[in-house]
Amino acid sequence: MLKKDSLLKGTIILAAAALVVRFLGLFQRIPLDYMLGSIGQAAFNSANTIYLLLLTIATGGIPLSISKMISQRYALGRPDEAKRIYQAALMFGAVTGLLLATAMFVLAPVYERLSRVPDSAVSLQAIAPALLLFPIIAMMRGYFQGRQIMAAGGISQIMEQILRLIGGIGLAFIVLGLGWGDKYGAAAVAFGSVLGSIGAFSVMMWFARKLKKQDRDEESTIATDKAEKPSSKLPFRTIYREIFRTSIAAVVTAMTVQFVYFFDQSFFMRLTTAFYNHDTAIKVLAEYTNRAMGIAGIPPILAIALGASIIPVISSAYALKNMEEVQRQSSLVMRIVFFTGVPVALLLTVASYSVTGLLFKSPSGYDTVALLTAGAIFQITMMISNSILYGLNKPKQPMYHTFIGLGLKVVCSLALAPFLGVYGLIIGSSICFIVITLLNVKTINKEINLNILGNKWFAYLAAIAVPALAGWGTEYLVLHITDAWANKVSYFFAAAVTSIIVGGLYLIMLAALRVITPEDVRSFPGPLRKVLTLVLKPFYKRAV
Q: How far apart are CA 437 and CA 160, in angstroms?
């Protein structure tokens, strides 16, 4: 029997699924570096980025709207209306999927000419069929979330990534083994998304059949003398109006990162013509899309989990006009991000040479990894501040801020990329994230007074700067000492020792400079509270 999940359990399920999906996505990129050349990597990543952007546009925010509509109808005792909404959502997903898949397949050669990324058309056509199912899957996930059955969406996401990873890499091995070359090897990896969509759809259908049977059994046990109520005739037009009214803002903000990556990949070859020759541009593009984007996707994982959990908490407090609780929770989540998310990005930035060399074929492109990962800090603050504004029932504000940020991204990239190459594009992205964050915080402060670090900002910056300098020195020293070792072993030891130095020194500096206090620690989640309590004991013996 399918049971409803509590808010806490549901959040844990979705957060755990997001963590698994992100890490599986990273590990798909690693074998690509060994299997494909620069052209093959660039072709696959171009196709994958466009696919993710189109999927975000088609589904981003809509499942959340459907979830709210479904839960409201069941709460009001209107299951027929809920089923009607579900039917409308499935129809929308099917039509949207067909249109997007067809457009992507037909226009693939046009995009290849526009982007000047060789062989990308075949990869685009290989991944296009996945769009037939994923919009439908997204609608089904929204329905199950509305019924408070989070396991359906979580398990389907994990199944999707497993089949995508194993199927795509396995097919690529076969294709490359037959001697078909990188062009079709990249397409084989891209086709893994189609296998993932089939797996995810199968999981959702299993849950759908089980829930349908359960609903039918429950209805048959309800004895009533009244005539059966007629099915809801809620017009599809009314349903779609409600869905789009509540989801458009979420779609715009959800597509920010994917649009940034789409812009960079689509215009990289054109914008950097004056900076790189053709072969170098392809090599740098492959490193940027496969290595840098893969590693830079790690730090925001925490923000995704926190963002999913903080919206209902802030929303509930805001609905009750408990502004003190809104202020406390909003400040707390931002504080947690600065204390935990930032050091992860800091570590990956400092140890970028060792981490890149350990995960991929060589450390080439580590400077791009470092700069993009450092910019992920602002991506994290953007995502969390977006979530706070959603909790404050102000979804339009982050949408407007996103338009401003993306406009600056385009302008800065056009101005800087011809002179700085890939660095100009990354700087443009960081400016986009910073501006959106600042605008979001300014809007939040009109409702509540965010108190993140108070007068401790200087001490906090010192707590970042000292471990960063120590980390750079440690990595250089360990690499020098282990120079005669096997490359992978040397990179592993350098990354491990640097992690210990940066992480340990960071915690010590936070405590020694009184950036974090026992009062802060008591408000943190349990596991994090236990770790920080141990660190703080020598500095706050009486208080902890």
A: 32
CB 313 within 8 Å of CB 391:
yes
Task: Please give the full DSSP string across 479-517, using - where no structure is assigned.
Answer: HHHTTTS-HHHHHHHHHHHHHHHHHHHHHHHHHHTTSS-
**Does residue 387 carry a pLDDT above 80?**
yes
pLDDT digits (tens, 9 = 90+) for 177-189: 999 999 999 999 9
Please answer whether residues 290 and 45 qualify as being in contact, where contact means their C-beta atoms are separated by less than 8 angstroms: yes
Task: Please write down the HEC assignment for all residues of 94-110.
Answer: HHHHHHHHHHHHHHHHH
Gap between the Cα atoms of 232 and 225, Å rounded: 20
Query: Would you list the DSSP string of 426-477?
Result: HHHHHHHHHHHHHHHHHHHHHHS---SSTT-HHHHHHHHHHHHHHHHHHHHH
243: which 2 tokens?
């869905």
Residue 79 has pLDDT above 50, yes or no: yes
Distance CA 196, CA 232 (A): 35
Alpha-helical segments (H) within 351-365: 352-359
Q: What is the rounded distance in angstroms from the CA atom of residue 269 to the CA atom of residue 51?
A: 20
How many whole angstroms separate alpha carbon 238 and alpha carbon 215? 25
**Cα–Cα distance measured from residue 515 to residue 538, given in angstroms and rounded to the nearest whole number:** 15
Q: Where on the phi/psi map is residue 117: left (φ > 0), alpha (ψ -120 to 50), or beta?
A: beta
Handedness of CA 342, 344, 348, 351 (dihedral sign): positive
What size, in residues, is the chain? Answer: 544
- One-letter amino acid identity for 497? V
Of 303, 297, 298, nearest to 334 by C-alpha is: 303
Distance CA 421, CA 269 (A): 10
| Distance set, CA 484 to CA 77, 351, 475 (Å) | 71, 19, 15
Give me the residue label for tokens 């450092």.
374
Q: Where are the beta strands (DSSP E) in 149-213?
A: none
Closest among 371, 370, 344, 307 to 464, alpha carbons compared: 344
Cα distance between residue 80 and residue 68, in whole Å: 15
Those residues whose C-beta lies under 8 Å from the C-beta of residue 298, and which sit 6 or more positions away, are 22, 26, 344, 348
DSSP 230: P
pLDDT tens, 95-105? Answer: 999 999 999 99
Residue type, position 322, single letter: N
